[in-house]
Amino acid sequence: MDFSLTEEQQMVRDMARDFSREQLLPRARKHDEQGCIDPEVFVGLAELGLWGLTIPEEHGGAGMGNFELALVLEELNAGCASTGVTVSVHNSLLGSPIRRFGTVEQQNDWLPQLASGERIGAYCLTEPNAGSDAGAVKTSARRDGDDWILDGTKIFVTNGAFAGLFIVYARTNPLEPGAKGMSAFLVPCEAEGLTVGKAEKKTGIRGSSTTEILFENLRLPKEALLGEENKGFTVAMDTLDGGRIGIASQGLGIGRACLEASIRYAKDREQFGRPIGRFQAIQWKLADMSTQLDASRMLVHRAALKRDAGERCSLEAAQSKLMASKTANFCADECLQIHGGAGYTDDFEVERLFRDARITEIYEGATDIQRIVIARSLLA
Ligand SMILES: Cc1cc2nc3c(=O)[nH]c(=O)nc-3n(C[C@H](O)[C@H](O)[C@H](O)COP(=O)(O)OP(=O)(O)OC[C@H]3O[C@@H](n4cnc5c(N)ncnc54)[C@H](O)[C@@H]3O)c2cc1C
Questions:
Q1: 94 CB less than 6 Å from ligand 1?
Q2: Is 2 domain-assigned?
Q3: What pLDDT, on a 0 to 100 scale, did the predictor assign at position 259?
Q4: Does the predicted TM-score (pTM) go above 0.85?
Q5: Ligand 1 within 6 A of 362 CB?
Q6: Residue 161 lies in a domain
Q7: Whether residue 183 is found in the same domain as residue 276
Q8: Looking at ligand 1, which atom is closest to the CA of residue 365?
Q9: CA–CA distance, 113 with 368 (Å, rounded to integer)
Q10: How far is the CA of 318 from the centre of ligand 1 (A)?
Q11: Which residues contact 145 (CB under 8 A, 6 or more apart)?
Q12: C-alpha dist (Å) from residue 34 to 30, 93, 205, 296, 308
């Protein structure tokens, strides 16, 4: 597999790296403390075309693939993971299913608005009783003439507070209790009956928005159905293959930030009359962090290239997320240890990185769910 970058890929990666260093890193602490991302960042992302990175050119996007998205997300997350997840969800969890399952009309209606960042995307699958068991969704969509009526509550919706377009998974066949009776719908934020509920106070990625979204007697035209009726679970799982590559890239970015912070500190901090980086115990930590990050990156890039080639990549995406999220947490833990007591204070960014890394093992399928996906594929 060829992991070398074309000139265009290097350019887009470098552009994201510069933006991350100049605009995100200096704001990351502020985003964490204020619980939201500065509006200037949304504008900057639009100017660079990053909201539409994976949206086809004919719809106003850059027409790039999951591989380029992975490069960009690693860079953005190395600066600010709250911004990283916001962009990841928008591209992977909303732009992607509309591209892959949408009608020509749905693509014409929504993709240009997503590409420009005029509407930010959100993905509504999780419910109070449907987390890892996503097939247990209770939100219902019932027919009323040609329309659908949506009722239910979604939780933990990333971008919930400001999203302009939601993909919502609802049960369309009450007689099918599991994954089979679900369908996907596109719901604009202005739809009557949609309410943004409680905002979560989180351990990390505090600058990102995570809210409840409530639907009450919400009327949708038949054109809002995305993909086939009762085949929504397929849309949800296919979408998550891409999303997992995005979160794995987030793990890479956070892990790399931890490695870079560790190297800086190991050169700077002196004990016993020398920089702590001269102690072999510290050197081994750096070596392990760097090796695990490189191995994770190869898994992420392999999964992304496979998806871009139009092949099924559930196994590779799960492997990349499993490995990269564990690596992010490993790197955060080692980075904090290398910083000693200082790492346990907010004088250094490792405290935030440590909190931000934790989520990568939970959302878009917790670590054990990735293992289930991988094992299922091995045993099939
Ligand atoms: C900050 C944040 C943002 C999120 N953003 C979104 C979003 O945008 N859209 C969305 O739809 N959801 C979102 N989620 C939800 C997220 O995807 C779920 O939290 C996640 O899938 C886990 O579900 P759960 O929290 O209900 O945990 P549970 O399913 O209750 O799992 C609890 C524990 O049990 C383990 N477990 C469960 N089943 C098994 C099993 N069969 N075998 C072994 N272990 C098992 C899990 O691995 C986990 O460790 C977000 C969550 C958070 C915290």
A1: no
A2: no
A3: 98
A4: yes
A5: yes
A6: yes
A7: no
A8: 21
A9: 36
A10: 14
A11: none
A12: 6, 26, 11, 32, 37
Split into its structural domains, the chain has a count of 3
| 114 and 126, same domain (yes or no) | no
* Same domain membership, residue 193 and residue 157: yes
| Same domain, yes or no: 162 and 271 | no
Domain region containing 207:
122-230
From the CA of 243, how far away is ligand 1's center (Å)? Answer: 14
Q: Which of 156, 168, 322 to mutate to test the pocket of ligand 1 (most atoms within 8 A of CB)?
A: 156
CA 103 to ligand 1 center in whole angstroms: 30
Select from 120, 139, 167 the last residue of a domain. Answer: 120
Asked if residue 1 belongs to a domain, the reply is no
Burial letters for 293-323: b for 16+ Cβ neighbours within 10 Å, e otherwise?
Answer: beebbebbbbbbbbbbeeeebbbbbbbbbbb
Question: For position 156, which CATH number holds?
Answer: 2.40.110.10
Q: Is 125 in the pocket of ligand 1 (CB under 6 A)?
A: yes
Helix 232-268 vs helix 66-79: angle between axes, to the nearest 10 degrees? Answer: 40
Cβ of residue 126 lying under 6 Å from some atom of ligand 1: yes
Same domain as 213, residue 272: no
Residue of the CA atom closest to atom 48 of ligand 1:
366
Q: Check pLDDT > 90 for residue 177.
A: no
Distance from the CA of 313 to the center of ligand 1, in angstroms? 21
Residue 129 C-alpha from the chain's centroid: 22
Please state the atom number of ligand 1 nearest to the C-alpha of residue 130. 26
The string of pLDDT tens digits covering residues 280-326 is: 999 999 999 999 999 999 999 999 999 999 999 999 999 999 999 99
